[in-house]
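Our collaborator T.R. sent over the components below with a one-line note: 'Predict the complex.' Nothing else. No constraints on interfaces, no templates requested, no preferences about which chain binds where. So this is a plain run: every listed entity goes in together, and whatever single assembly comes back becomes the starting point for the next discussion.
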Amino acid sequence: MSTRHDLAAPTPLDIRLRETQEAFDSVAADYDGPRGNNELIQRMRHTLWATVREELPAGSRLLDLGCGTGIDAVEFARSRFQVTASDWSPRMVERARDRAEAAGVASRMQAVHVGVQELDRIEGEFDGIYSNFGPLNCAPDLREVAAQCARLVRPGGTLVFSVMGRICPWEVAHYAARGRFRRALVRGARGVTPVGMNRHTIWTYYYMPREFYAAFAEHFALSQYRALSLFLPPPYMVDRVRRRPGFYDRLGRMDDRLGKLPLLRDMGDHFLIVMHRR
Ligand SMILES: C[S@@+](CC[C@H](N)C(=O)[O-])C[C@H]1O[C@@H](n2cnc3c(N)ncnc32)[C@H](O)[C@@H]1O
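Returned assembly:
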């Protein structure tokens, strides 16, 4: 993989981006399984799908930032959207391409190896841009991402992002109960922080919804945001949910009903935020 800094010594940022890339490359092969697509993830995924469909008619041109194995991109291509799916992990991009071929939607979905830190490499105009499950938590410069989104999306166009938030009560309780206090509080970190996955490191930035929106405010008006998986636990606790499905089903309905309320919408495993190009 070549980067712009081929000839120069890698900067700390280059190294962090490379480590994050290696982390996701290492899980790409099984990312559609329990790790990347269990029932708690699917529940949040369906909320993003419904939101994109409420905002944009079929046939719209969509850009997916951090597409992973292409589950969302193929879903939208099947529903006749035109999708450009991008990701920083070459293995994820390969998987997304294969998925599009297998689903017979390659004419409506292209997958490109582009990181969110290099969106200037993407040309064209889009009606909407979405990003699901935290790729934007890996963006080293969110204001630059916002400026690139403003370049790429038409006036009045839509952004729909799901982003890892700072306040996840389940996570604090889960790790604190195991004596892993530093991990319990990792989302409170200022700036970039290392998070382990599969013996690799994902360099991660956490946000409150308003803190996230501030980076986009110059170009985009805030339409709404809501909590995802606040009453339900984060996806890595899926075993607990499987043991008591009825109870957790009720918690899921509380997420649906209450996740948009003030204060509650500032918490949860992720938040879903919708913005419109000014
Ligand atoms: C948690 S996965 C979510 C994947 C997909 N959106 C989904 O819903 O299944 C995060 C994705 O962000 C990608 N990613 C990480 N850093 C990135 C970056 N700098 N630019 C673009 N994508 C990045 C990873 O390769 C991975 O595919």
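Summary for T.R.: Residues 20, 24, 36, 66-68, 71-72, 87-89, 92, 115-117, 132-135, 138 surround S-adenosylmethionine (CB under 6 Å).
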